[in-house]
Amino acid sequence: MPDTELPGYELLPIPLPDEPTYALEPEGSLVATLVRRSHPMSRRAVLYVHGWSDYFFQRHLADEMAGLGYDFYAVDLRRYGRSLRDRQLAGYIADLSDYFTELDEALEVVRSEGHDDVVLMGHSTGGLTASLWAHERPGAFSAVVLNAPWLELQANSLLRPATQPVLSAARAVAPTTALPQLDTGFYRRCISSSEEGEWDYNLNLKGDPAFLIRVGWMAAILDGHARVAAGLSIDCPVLVAISARSDFRRSWDEGFRLADIVLDVDRIASRAPKLGDLVVIARIPDAMHDLVLSRTDVRERVFSEYSRFLTAYAPEADRAAN
Q1: Which fold has domain 10-321?
Q2: Nearest 5°: phi and psi at 123?
Q3: Is 210 left (phi over 0), alpha (psi -120 to 50) or beta?
Q4: Contact of 205 with 84, CB cutoff 8 Å
Q5: How crowded is residue 159: how many other Cβ atoms within 10 Å of its Cβ?
Q6: Cα–Cα distance between 2 and 21 in angstroms, integer?
Q7: CA–CA separation, 124 vs 148, rounded Å?
């Protein structure tokens, strides 16, 4: 059916009637959504997974991938974006592996439409989920491209090991309890055309202000980080693209437009080699957290790195584009 958010795109609901609901959520209400750029034109495809408090709206990313010879698909995960329903806990999940249900179904659709060469792409929290999924699905992907993947907790390296047992215990008792959080609005100011940014998107679908962070969700994230720290075995080439620096100052500065103000890129870089045997790290000067939302010249550099990586490690796509 036509997508009401992006003209010219199509969407396919993926019902999840048997997946668990929490608190006062309506039973059987869960659904994910597969978004498709156009009718299949190639046997190669990208499957994109968004980040926290987000949904797919970056159509220029899809256009760039089409230029490399890939059809483009994106998943709005359960409780996000096009998939969020009334009375659901926005963004909540108790275990990141629960997402494998809709991701497996999305991949089945992509393959059923004639694609036997699939590149998995994930941003931020979606990059963490994508990494865990790719590890569990050997042979499924020709390459993995990660845009600022949340591979480790920010700040001191001892914070996660100290925090994880506490949150795991709290999850068993009160998983949907909301945690204190501070949303400065700085990132929205950087990217949204409703403020001082470039990009038009649906504030309701993107979760703006951000979704509540709940105990069970945070515990699931830390479990994912621990799995990465222990080492994954993704069996295809992986690109980890990140900004050259992070900036966590607490008062507004124009320099926020030239850095990742959400995640610690040095921590990501230190964890990236744990993903598999062939991992390429690209650090992009002046890039924001979502690299493809950076200013024009910076995102052109990002797309150039994507192209160079795929040409080197998935060269069939380059031949298709030519």
Answers
A1: Rossmann fold (3.40.50)
A2: -120, 130
A3: beta
A4: yes
A5: 13
A6: 28
A7: 5
pTM: 0.95
Q: Locate the domains of the chain by residue range.
A: 10-321
Closest CA to 53 of 20, 107, 93: 93
Residue 140 CB neighbour total at 10 angstroms: 18
* Identity of residue 132: L
At 289, is the pLDDT very low, low, confident or very high (cuts 50, 70, 90)?
very high
Residue listed under structure tokens 């390459």: 143
Give the residue among 38, 40, 18, 37 at the shortest CA–CA distance from 29.
18
What is the torsion angle, in degrees rounded to the nearest 10, for the CA atoms of residue 67, residue 68, residue 73 and residue 79? -90
Dig out the tokens for 109 from the structure.
Answer: 């659709």
Tokens of 156: 């001191």
Confidence check: pLDDT of 158 > 70: no
Q: How far apart are CA 305 and CA 302, in angstroms?
A: 5
Tell me which residue has tokens 């009718």.
39
Q: CA 109 to CA 51: how far, in whole Å?
A: 21
Residue 114 neighbours by CB distance under 10 Å: 13
Torsions phi, psi for 46 (to 5 deg): -110, 135
Residue 294: CB atoms within 10 Å? 24
Q: What is the spatial distance between Cα 228 and Cα 132, in angstroms, rounded to a whole number?
A: 8
The sign of the CA dihedral 288, 291, 293, 299 is positive
For residue range 240-270, list pLDDT tens digits in order: 999 999 999 999 999 999 999 999 999 999 9
Residue with tokens 């034109």: 41
- pLDDT, greater one: 235 or 318: 235
Q: Which amino acid is at 110?
A: V
Tokens 């990586």 belong to which residue?
309
Lookup result for tokens 């845009």:
147
The secondary element (H helix, E strand) that includes residue 117 is strand 117-123
Lowest mean pLDDT among 42-51, 115-124, 164-173, 291-300: 164-173
